[in-house]
Recover the amino acids of this structure.
């Protein structure tokens, strides 16, 4: 019955799992930055980056296959960059038959570089989410001084996304259960428009239920002392070894990019 | 210790659209007493309960809890004293982890971190759910959620528990666990419920509410024997 | 995919300087949104907006088929803005996009600034402004919701798509003249789905709890209406220009011819736009510049409209405080 949306996290006790979440977020961002700054056609650097990420994944003892599968998510977007192979001036590799278009070597290199960098970035992001619990991420945001209101919104969102998607699923199933075909085999008229309308109604219904629920949640919060300001426990001190470890991880990536 | 835990005097509540939800209710509950609040849906049970910690304000009448009048000035103290457990645990458990939820109450009461940790631990112990601190609320079963929901108010060291349909939606085993738990708890209790067997087994005094008014108040055994009375107010014998 | 139905830009497609600009802009607008919502809403705002964020998240799972085997997704920015006001909607959409990027890798981390702007802020304000405009010209609330919701929803998706295409072009990843027409084309269709669902949802809410629709009671003045028209016209102009770009013989053929040149003749126009990686010359050249100018004008026009709105909203603060 439950959609386990946040189950990217793979539990473990590797050094990556235990690394302070604040450090992890910063490390992740900087590493992605380093990867994105790797120059075009610096293929050795790309390979090194890939090896480093693979090493981290193995060291974190997480299952690599689901990670790789997941990393393909950004691939369709690669098509947005496909024009590069035609538009970058340079040595022509292949003339597209029946058109004036030609693929240039530089263009191909540009395109491949964009795709590889993007894929590496996604891998890093997945590494972050598989080794960090969502609740630790929230904690890290708090420690990184995210404004309290925004953090609160994100916290409630994470908490209630299942509840709401469950409700949505139930509504959807109820609708499907009542969506029989007409007995005489004919297609009902203007089905598409009607389906959009019903979907819109369901969205409206879900909104109203969300609103009511938020009222009840507010009452529950008020009953336990909430007066408008969410209080949280303090954050533990950042141990130096976290910083050292984080810096080391980042440094490798930076060196790889720099040397290219 | 105040003479009565709850004293309600002529409480009347009208909805914004004018409908009368609670009509001139007078009720007293002694410290440590367990009282069942039964009646058909729409009788005003939940509405009445929301007055006990100041979520709703009476149109007429007065409420005194633990010797303190329920008004805006005393809200902080009242809410520490009165633990309201809502019907849908998903409304009650609104924090990411179990720990966060059980810690919410004491945190907002201003306790120091050390004390908060202790209160959370003892509250989870009381409901037999120690070790659940780091669990994510949405991963729990209904029975587990109901117990954690109770823990979220126990951690505030409440002396008065107000429970709205505690056994609703529980399978027999979880329900049994809950009843055993409730039996052990020393707090004063006001329990709104449709579960007549729970009332019969656990709660010595019953108050029947219908159409916003109290129509009967007395010994559970006596009231449950009166079939006519029960039927007149949409109830059945267990 | 020129035909990407997904507006979540991953990392690696936008240039770093542009991404930083996006982050700064997003941070600024989110900070502004935080301040604004503090004025309008009360203690209930945090659980309300949080749960609505999960509502949007759940609603975004709705997908519908459009032409040729592709499907589009419901975005919800316009709907949320009409229901909750644009600033609250900004916060709600930011939360959704942030978690989508961080935990689901739907959208990059460095690109998140622009993703928040494209899918959260531009959609919210477009939807809201169009709705207010329609409220000004219709007497019935319900009609305003239908028209405003439909057109606002449609336009919000379109603007998000155009903005994404422009950002990709500025980064040198996509040739604007080639990418924009199909982007626009596809999202014109996806926008229809968004329009229908948005309008139907609003009608439903209006039937049951009209008091929950925040935008209902506010009517824009003539001044702000004028600016909204300016902004909208510019966007529509851009939309109409894009098919011209592809049908223009200059566009593609010039591109092709130039890359096909064995004699690498360095025309002056090459060096001018070298970082765009588009070896174009002539009219297509101008078109790209024009696109940039138009894009800026859209942002500018929207900002002016917001400025005007602020003045109106100030006087409505008293009413707004009691209505929710």
């Amino acid at each position: 019955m439950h959609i386990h949306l946040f189950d990217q996290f793979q539990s473990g006790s590797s050094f990556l799992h235990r690394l302070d979440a604040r450090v992890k977020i910063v490390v992740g961002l900087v590493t992605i930055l380093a990867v994105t700054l790797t120059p075009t056609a610096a293929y050795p650097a790309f390979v090194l980056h890939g090896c480093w990420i693979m090493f981290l994944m193995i060291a974190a003892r997480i299952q690599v296959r689901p990670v790789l599968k997941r990393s393909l998510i950004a691939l369709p977007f690669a098509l947005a960059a496909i024009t590069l192979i035609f538009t970058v001036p340079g040595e022509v590799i292949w003339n597209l038959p029946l058109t004036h278009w030609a693929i240039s070597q530089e263009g191909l290199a540009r395109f491949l570089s964009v795709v590889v960098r993007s894929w590496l970035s996604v891998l890093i992001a997945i590494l972050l989410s598989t080794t960090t619990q969502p609740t630790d991420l929230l904690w890290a945001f708090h420690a990184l001084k995210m404004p309290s209101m925004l953090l609160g919104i994100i916290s409630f969102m994470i908490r209630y996304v299942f509840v709401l998607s469950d409700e949505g699923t139930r509504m959807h199933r109820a609708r499907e259960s009542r969506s029989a075909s007409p007995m005489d085999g004919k297609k009902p008229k203007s089905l598409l428009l009607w389906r959009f309308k019903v979907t819109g109604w369901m969205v409206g219904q879900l909104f109203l239920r969300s609103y009511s629920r938020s009222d009840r949640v507010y009452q529950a919060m008020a009953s336990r002392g909430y007066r408008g300001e969410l209080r949280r426990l303090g954050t533990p001190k950042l141990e130096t070894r976290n910083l050292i470890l984080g810096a080391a991880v980042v440094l490798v990536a930076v060196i790889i990019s720099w040397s290219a | 210790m105040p003479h009565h835990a709850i004293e309600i005097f002529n409480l009347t509540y009208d909805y914004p659209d004018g409908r009368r939800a609670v009509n001139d209710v007078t009720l007293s509950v002694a410290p440590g007493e367990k009282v069942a609040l039964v009646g058909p849906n729409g009788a005003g049970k939940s509405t009445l309960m929301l007055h006990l910690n100041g979520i709703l304000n009476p149109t007429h009448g007065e409420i005194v809890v633990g010797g303190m009048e329920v008004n805006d000035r005393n809200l902080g103290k009242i809410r520490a004293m009165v633990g309201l457990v809502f019907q849908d645990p998903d409304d009650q458990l609104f924090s990411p982890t179990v720990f966060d939820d059980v810690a919410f109450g004491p945190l907002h009461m201003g306790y120091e971190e050390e004390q908060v940790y202790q209160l959370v631990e003892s509250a989870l112990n009381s409901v037999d759910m120690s070790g659940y601190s780091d669990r994510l609320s949405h991963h729990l079963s209904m029975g587990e959620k109901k117990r954690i929901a109770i823990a979220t108010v126990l951690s505030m060291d409440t002396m008065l528990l107000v429970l709205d349909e505690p056994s609703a939606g529980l399978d027999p085993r979880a329900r049994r666990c809950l009843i055993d738990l409730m039996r052990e708890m020393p707090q004063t209790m006001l329990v709104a419920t449709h579960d007549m067997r729970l009332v019969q087994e656990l709660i010595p005094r019953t108050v029947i509410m219908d159409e916003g008014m109290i129509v009967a108040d007395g010994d559970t055994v006596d009231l449950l024997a009166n079939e006519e009375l029960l039927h007149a107010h949409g109830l059945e014998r267990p | 995919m020129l035909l990407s139905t997904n507006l979540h830009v991953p990392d690696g497609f936008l240039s770093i300087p542009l991404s930083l600009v996006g982050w700064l802009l997003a941070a600024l607008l989110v900070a502004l949104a935080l301040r604004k919502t503090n004025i309008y809403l009360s203690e209930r705002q945090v659980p309300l907006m949080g749960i609505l964020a999960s509502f949007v998240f759940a609603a975004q799972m709705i997908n519908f088929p459009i032409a040729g085997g592709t499907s589009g997704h419901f975005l919800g920015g316009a709907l949320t803005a009409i229901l909750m006001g644009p600033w609250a909607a900004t916060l709600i959409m930011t939360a959704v996009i942030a978690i989508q990027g961080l935990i689901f890798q739907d959208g990059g981390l460095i690109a998140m600034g622009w993703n928040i702007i494209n899918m959260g802020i531009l959609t919210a304000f477009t939807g809201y402004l169009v709705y207010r405009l329609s409220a000004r010209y219709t007497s019935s609330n319900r009609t305003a919701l239908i028209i405003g919701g439909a057109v606002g929803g449609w336009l919000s998706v379109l603007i998000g798509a155009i903005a994404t295409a422009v950002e990709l072009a500025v980064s040198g990843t996509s040739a604007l003249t080639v990418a924009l027409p199909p982007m626009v084309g596809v999202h014109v269709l996806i926008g229809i789905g968004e329009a229908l669902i948005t309008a139907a949802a609003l009608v439903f809410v209006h039937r049951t709890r009209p008091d929950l629709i925040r935008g209902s009671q506010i009517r824009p003045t003539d001044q702000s209406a004028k600016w909204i028209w300016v902004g909208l016209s510019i966007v529509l102009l851009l939309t109409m220009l894009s098919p011209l770009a592809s049908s223009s013989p200059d566009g593609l053929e010039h591109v092709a011819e130039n890359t096909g040149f064995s004699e690498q003749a360095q025309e002056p126009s090459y060096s001018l736009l070298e970082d765009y990686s588009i070896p174009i010359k002539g009219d297509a050249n101008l078109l790209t510049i024009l696109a940039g100018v138009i894009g800026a004008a859209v942002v500018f026009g929207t900002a002016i409209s917001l400025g005007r709105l602020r003045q109106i909203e100030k006087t409505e603060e008293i009413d707004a405080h009691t209505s929710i």
